[in-house]
What we know:
- This protein is α/β, with parallel strands linked by helices.
- It has one domain: NAD(P)-binding Rossmann-like Domain (Rossmann fold).
- 45% of the residues lie in helices and 15% in strands.
- It has helices at residues 14-25, 37-40, 59-68, 92-124, 146-165, 184-192, 196-205, 215-226, and strands spanning 5-8, 29-34, 49-53, 74-77, 127-132, 171-178, 237-240.
- The chain has a seven-stranded parallel beta sheet, with helices on both faces.
- Nicotinamide-adenine-dinucleotide (NAD) binds next to helix 1 and helix 6.
Amino acid sequence: MQNKVILITAAGQGIGAASARACAAAGARVIATDVNAGLLTALDGVPGIETRQLDVTDAGAIAALAADLPDLDGLFNCAGVVHHGSILELSDDDWAFALDLNVTAMVRMCRAFVPGLLRQADQTGSAAILNMSSMASSVKGFQNRTAYGATKAAVIGLTKAIAADFVTRNLRCNALCPGTVDTPSLQGRIAAAPDPVQAEKDFIARQPMGRLATVDDLTPTIVHLLSDGSRFVTGQAVLVDGGVTI
Ligand code: NAD
């Protein structure tokens, strides 16, 4: 990843923040973005990382950032939201928000940054997009994940379509499908459950290794999929799920 310019969304905490650190440690120049500028201060001073505030649901902000940055070598669309509930608890507003943040924002990010990624691919022979999906998607159904599963399935379709369109141009596009990862958002879902102790046990129970993933279980695969090491890998939904889908 030496000197590759990699933009990461939702890099203020959780998987995005760990990915920013891992890509920078692998030699990349990382542009770490998040809607919450306060969270990004934790990355201040980390060699190889610069931070920019970005709400990925704001089309104007995406266009302005794309115009202001050099052409990217890699784009990691990490931002997403979990809506808890079956279709009976899913309001139109919940659905619209999940679709906007999990899918439409990713469409806008790709549309804004693909021209620059293609220019880089023409020059260097390699550029990569990584889109955050989940094992809860077209891969597997989970209880109370209607909006989440449907929108993360759309991410896989989007990923394959982009991969097909640019397969001859050295621009690759893959989706990451993690299992249950211990992050601030997961801890928030556990805390919001009627019985948080049981909720944590239930999340662990769905992981056959008997533990949650850590962000460090994911970052080697994320670095790989954004680097030239994966130069013959495109259009894939890559599972890092601790064996849930064996
Ligand atoms: P997290 O809560 O730990 O971090 C989410 C980050 O997203 C926060 O920093 C937040 O400020 C940022 N964010 C929220 N709205 C935003 C917006 N509009 N624009 C830009 N940034 C915004 O989350 P996480 O658990 O690390 O999840 C990151 C991604 O991984 C999500 O797409 C999630 O669906 C996916 N994922 C998570 C798990 C898991 O178990 N944690 C499993 C599979 C997939």
